Amino acid sequence: MYPHERSLVKDYAERPFAIIGVNSDRDRDKLKERIVEESITWRSFWNGGSTSGPISTRWNVSGWPTIYVIDHTGKIRYRDVRGDALDAAIAELVEEAERALEKQGR
């Protein structure tokens, strides 16, 4: 999914949008190398080297990749959407966030 994620970061660079990744690779040093190789510029947390690490356990993740699309209020609005459905969900929620920011005068 890295190419798609990179394109989202580029397309929404000046808008209220962020990607947060969680990675369960065992070898943290190799993971750091891969982050550089894949041009991952967004925050990516390490799940302790296990698919049953603290982050996946707390968020009830049992399959990879699991995608949560969270709105500007912190509410999970979509789970495991992909492709065009993911793009549509992001576009919808970014527009909602922009409207909310306009109401706040930002």
Description:
With 106 residues, the chain is of the alpha+beta class. The protein has two domains: 1-66, Glutaredoxin, CATH 3.40.30.10; 69-106, no CATH class. 43% of the residues lie in helices and 14% in strands. The chain has four helices and four strands. It has helices at residues 2-11, 28-37, 54-58, 83-103; strands at 20-23, 43-46, 68-70, 76-79. The chain has a two-stranded parallel ribbon with strand order 1-2. It has a two-stranded antiparallel ribbon with strand order 3-4. The longest helix is centred in the last third of the chain and has 21 residues, at 83-103. The termini are far apart.
Task: Describe the structure in brief.
The chain contains four helices and four strands. The protein is an alpha+beta fold and 106 residues long. β1, α2 and β2 (43-46) form a beta-alpha-beta unit.
